[in-house]
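On clarity, I found the account of how folds are encoded harder to follow than it need be. For illustration, here is how one protein appears when written out as sequence plus structure tokens.
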Amino acid sequence: MTPSERKPSSGFQDSQDSLWPDEKPDAPVQPLTREQAQALLARYPAMSPWHLIAGQVLVGVLVALLWGLASGDLVAVKSSLYGAMVAVLPNVLMVRGVFGPNAGRSVGGLLVWELIKICGAGALLAVSPVVVPGLSWAAMLITMVLCMKVIGVALLMQGRLKKNLN
């Protein structure tokens, strides 16, 4: 074959040529009808971010009570409650920004609010020794981490619930 007989190549192989010998092409995706989409949403209801925040508040208060019972120290309880606040307040701000009445639903908006949330949590951590005199770092940080883990646990539980429904 001479160079003039070759077909120009775009550098990409045809999709059929790129398949492994035992691989079959995927079936085309069919869009859902309105009824199918509504049935799917009814079967797997969305988790409310406000319920997650309520769960974080509940965990924060319970952990603060446990710190109070275990240590008998009011400063440890205050530190624990402040740790819960460090986890919850930036999330409230983010949920309000992302899901609020005037929120535009976009990936860029989500990233901006996530950045605001991270900066807000960092600022709350930076001023914690001033806000809570005699701060118990252990109480604050452990409570903060446990409050943040509420979201992960809720997502795990939701995934298991979906598997059990099927």
In short: The chain has a mean pLDDT of 83.
